[in-house]
Amino acid sequence: MSVEQQATWLVPTLLFWGAESHRELCSHTFCSQLLMRTIRRLLVIGASVAIAAPVAQTAQAQAPNSGTVLHVTPYAGYMVFGNYLSGPLGTSVTNTPAPMYGTQVGLSLSPRLSLIGNVGYTSSSIQVGVPIFGGLSVGSSSILMYDGGLEYNLGSAKEGGSALSPFVQAGVGAMQYNINASILNTQATNLTGNLGAGADFSVGKNMALRVMAKDYIGKFNFQDATGFNVNGPTANNFALMAGLRLDF
Description:
The chain is α+β, with helices and mostly antiparallel strands. The protein has three helices and eleven strands. The chain has helices at 3-25, 28-62, 222-226, and strands at residues 70-80, 83-86, 92-95, 98-108, 113-130, 134-153, 157-159, 162-181, 185-204, 207-218, 235-247. The protein has an eight-stranded antiparallel barrel. α1 (3-25) packs antiparallel against α2.
């Protein structure tokens, strides 16, 4: 409800309340006090409306993506993985870099702050790194990523005639691995924190080209995958993405 609508509702209500109270309780001194209180209330409401209405109109005019509530961004990109395990003499276990795709959905909480949810998918080879011999493929894994968080828009600027809106985001989620190897077929799910940054380039009404980099930070869950309590390193899994943001 806008400030003007609130005032339209409150003013008659206070007038009615003041009139009813005046009829039922009016006595010489009390009647005058009641009338003065009612007048003061009306003056306060009037001043609030006069001050708040221009401020609200200015904020709406300056707000990026004002009037939009839902944002949907299908995207594609490329993902580079950190190590599941780092062993002696430079040995390691990781996934090879691979294409990825997914969709992010955002719900505006304010002109610059959105609640976001994301689902992404990739499929990659499992690689054992051995000094001198290099990387040896020992199987494959498909990886489902899902997370939720907050996105903050840093404001708009003009760049070559197109509106540029940089943003940052942070959240928590999980990476679910489905592993198919010569000696092991298993699944594992590990928790992740994620940080991202990027920019939207306006290409039309309610439409923007989005580019973003995102880091999924977490440890591979060996307990879930093998039953052994192996403590692997904290890995940074970097994703570079581009997509089309649609605003509704």
